[in-house]
Design brief:
The chain is an alpha+beta fold and about 220 residues long. It has one domain: Gcn5-related N-acetyltransferase (GNAT) (Aminopeptidase). The protein is built from 7 helices and 9 strands; from the N terminus they run E-H-H-E-E-H-H-H-E-H-E-H-E-E-E-E. A 7-stranded mixed β-sheet has the order 1-2-3-4-5-9-6, with helices on both faces. A two-stranded antiparallel ribbon has the order 7-8. Helix 6 links the parallel strand 4 and strand 5. Helix 1 crosses helix 2 and helix 2 runs antiparallel to helix 3. The protein starts with a strand and ends with a strand.
């Protein structure tokens, strides 16, 4: 049976569905449970900026009244960083401590892996400057996630094309995306869409199901 997919702008009624999908796909298309099972916290980190501070840059894919995927976008990466740093992350950290999440085993694993990452993921001044300059060249960014069963059906391409059309209308000169190095499907998708890799991070460590995993983040850019 063919699927009738509608690509449309995000509406406030889609907020819960977007948040749920973000948690069900956050680990390279898989549920985030093995890394951190507090869905509310994860959804806030991944989607709160886009649904609450820049909803006009988000698009959803709908099938028979059900949201099956989304693209969250931002037109100005520097503004995004400021909002995350001063408005969103402080509240999330405070809430986590107040609710006692610090006693959660997964929290301790995240802190342990973050410490290991910081020890090895150092950047030189030239690397940091280069990253800042690249952000100016590719100020917009986006994230795309689809539920299993709705991938490899050209839905992702349609979502990306809607976002790129919006960027062009605003005369924004470039857009970037971040893909984990162990997400080969994501890399192939964006390369097919004309994105070019221009930056790869130092190693990042995370615990998944009590096992330490290692990956890098690859930044892809596309000029418009």
């Amino acid at each position: 049976m063919s699927q009738k997919i509608i690509i449309r702008k995000y509406e406030p009624k889609d907020r819960l569905a977007v948040r749920n999908i973000s948690c069900l796909t956050a680990d390279c298309g898989n549920p985030i449970d093995g890394i951190f099972n507090n869905y509310k916290f994860v959804a806030d980190v991944l989607t709160l900026y886009y649904t609450d501070y820049e909803p006009n840059s988000t698009f959803v894919a709908e099938n028979k009244g059900q949201i099956v995927g989304y693209l969250t976008g931002c037109m100005d990466g520097i503004h995004y960083q400021k909002v995350m740093k001063w408005k969103i992350l402080p509240k999330l950290v405070f809430r986590g401590l107040v609710l006692g999440a610090i006693i959660n085993k997964q929290i301790w694993q995240i802190l342990k892996s973050a410490t290991k990452t910081l020890k090895e993921c150092y950047f030189s001044i030239s690397e940091l400057l280069n990253g800042f300059l690249l952000l100016n060249e590719y100020p917009a960014h986006m994230h795309i996630n689809l539920l299993e069963g709705f991938r490899r059906k050209h839905i992702g391409e349609k979502l990306v094309n809607c976002f790129l059309k919006k960027i062009k209308l605003l005369n924004i000169k470039g857009v970037h995306v971040k893909v984990r190095s162990d997400n080969t499907g994501g890399s192939k998708f964006f390369e097919k869409m004309g994105f070019i890799p221009f930056f790869k991070s130092k190693p990042i460590f995370l615990y998944r199901d009590n096992h330490l995993i290692k990956f890098s983040v690859i930044m892809y850019g596309k000029k418009l």
